[in-house]
Amino acid sequence: MSRYSDSPKVPGSKFTERKGVRKVDEITEESGCLWRETQMHDVGIDGQIEYVDAEGRATGRLAAVQIKSGSSYFSKRADGIVRFKPEAKHRNYWASFPIPVVIVLYHPDEDLAIWGDARHQLRADLDAELRVSESQRLDAGAVLEILSLDGELPVLGFDPTGLLREMLDQTNGMHGTSQSFFDLFFHGLTDVGNCLYFGMDLFGEIMREKDIYLEHQDRLLSWGAEDYEFLDRYVSFLLAHDLVRLDFDNLRRSADDGMVGMFIAPLTPKGRDLVRAASELDREFSPSTGGYRSLAQERMVRILFRDSGERLLHIEKFKGAFRRRLKS
């Protein structure tokens, strides 16, 4: 018997899947745009396309892509239409996604790649089969069409002042302890301002600090559905404007379980540019900050070891048992 007879096998479908991903990558490159493949926790989105303008500037305009590669996906093919029925978990996921989601069907034997607006079709009828026209070939022009699904493509470069204004305008209410996207972003900066933290605890701490230091008397220190919707919009905003490198698929799984997710994510070049722009304005508004460093300083983030003793003993017990297993 071969020493490799019990080794894991790689199914042929894995290579077929990669052909589809490579095809999308190749066509996106031809269009002059960026393809970012989902490297971890792919739960229904294989990657994202970002629009790059004529000056070579990444704009933050994104579209999500799910790729289905193989002749089997063309089995329901008639009158120039290919029908595809997504799994229930994907239908809900794509319909609620904050940016356009397109399905790409790739037939490797025919080198045929076609696409359809999955999010739009599912929002119209969540239970319907997706209809993908063979006339909608995926090519460089189609990539730009896909990126236009949310409106005209941006023609200007990054506008940090406009983005900061939008962050101020997006709030969860008008009460004294209300918050804006601006609050969550600049209170969430960590790792010397190079990363961004987000979690329900951050939202709660900002609310409490506003109540204490700004001496608001409305005492609205509880939150409801509108606040959860506000936090969901904030994360979608970060993604849509490409401000952080975020494993959005993994975060959405928390939302599907009825929880607010949390993350520490590195800022993108655009995110760092936004912080620099705000810092320049901060120096203009407050030339002398005294003992306070700046608007864009880091917040300390730590794990609370509330059950540290019990957990410590359990981990030590596991280590001992594992060492004994290795010696046996």
Care to describe what's here?
The protein has 328 residues and is α+β, with helices and mostly antiparallel strands. Helices cover 41% and strands 17% of the residues. The chain has a 5-stranded mixed β-sheet. A 3-stranded antiparallel β-sheet has the order 4-5-8. The mean pLDDT is 83.
Sequence-ordered SSE layout with sheet pairings:
Elements: H1 12-30, E1 34-37, E2 47-52, E3 58-69, E4 77-78, E5 81-84, H2 88-95, E6 101-107, E7 112-117, H3 118-124, E8 130-133, H4 140-147, H5 160-169, H6 181-187, E9 189-190, E10 195-198, H7 200-213, H8 225-240, H9 248-256, E11 263-266, H10 269-285, H11 308-327
Parallel strand pairs: 3-6
Antiparallel strand pairs: 1-2, 2-3, 4-5, 5-8, 6-7, 9-10, 10-11
Helix pairs in contact: 2-3, 5-10
Key descriptive features of the protein:
328 residues, alpha+beta, five-stranded mixed sheet, three-stranded antiparallel sheet, 11 helices, 41% helix, globular
